[in-house]
From TrEMBL:
Primary localization: membrane
Keyword Cell inner membrane: yes
Basic residues composition-biased segments: 115-126
Annotated protein name in UniProt: Sec-independent protein translocase protein TatB
Keywords assigned: Cell inner membrane, Cell membrane, Membrane, Protein transport, Translocation, Transmembrane, Transmembrane helix, Transport
Recorded name of the encoding gene: tatB
GO molecular function (one): protein transmembrane transporter activity
Subunit note: The Tat system comprises two distinct complexes: a TatABC complex, containing multiple copies of TatA, TatB and TatC subunits, and a separate TatA complex, containing only TatA subunits. Substrates initially bind to the TatABC complex, which probably triggers association of the separate TatA complex to form the active translocon.
Subcellular location: Cell membrane; Membrane
GO BP annotation list: protein transport by the Tat complex
Length: 160
């Protein structure tokens, strides 16, 4: 690229001032600035387009690599499945040995699933008594009237 230093720019400005004149120099400088800006935008657009085309080529190359890898995996899985299905067919076609008794041929089926019954009373008794005392949980169930009678101050109708 052309190397413009300060001294060369000053020389070009002085020649332009003499040749063009002081009246027309600002308008010419503005026009030259617009043209340089357009040229820079054009160059940057071309660079961006070239970069996009390079990236597109790279993406297409990666896409073809992934597609070939996927085809290889599909082929391998298909081969393995055909081998396994063939071995299963062979095992199914082979005659099984004669059973000696009912327990050797067939095992007992597993027990049926039964849902667990939830009993809240059992659940409450699983908490230790010391924890209930510490956390302030009630240990004995009382009615509201029994609680009032228990905490009533002595002297007013209390039996003692």
């Amino acid at each position: 690229m052309i190397d413009f230093g300060f001294d060369k720019l000053a020389l070009i400005g002085a020649v332009a001032l003499i040749v063009i004149g002081p009246e027309k120099l600002p308008r010419v400088a503005r026009t030259v600035g617009h043209l340089l800006g357009k040229a820079q935008r054009y160059v940057s657009d071309v660079k961006a387009e070239v970069n996009r085309s390079i990236e597109l080529e790279e993406l297409q190359k990666m896409k073809s690599q992934f597609e070939s890898a996927a085809r290889d995996v599909e082929h391998t899985v298909h081969q393995e499945m055909s081998q396994v299905s063939g071995s299963l067919e062979n095992a199914w076609q082979e005659p099984s040995p004669a059973p000696d008794g009912p327990s050797s041929a067939w095992a007992e089926p597993p027990p049926q699933f039964r849902p667990v019954k939830k009993n809240w009373r059992v659940k409450r008794t699983a908490v230790p008594r010391w924890y209930k005392q510490q956390s302030g949980q009630r240990q004995h169930v009382q009615s509201g009237a029994a609680r009032v009678a228990r905490f009533r101050p002595p002297g007013r109708g209390a039996k003692n």
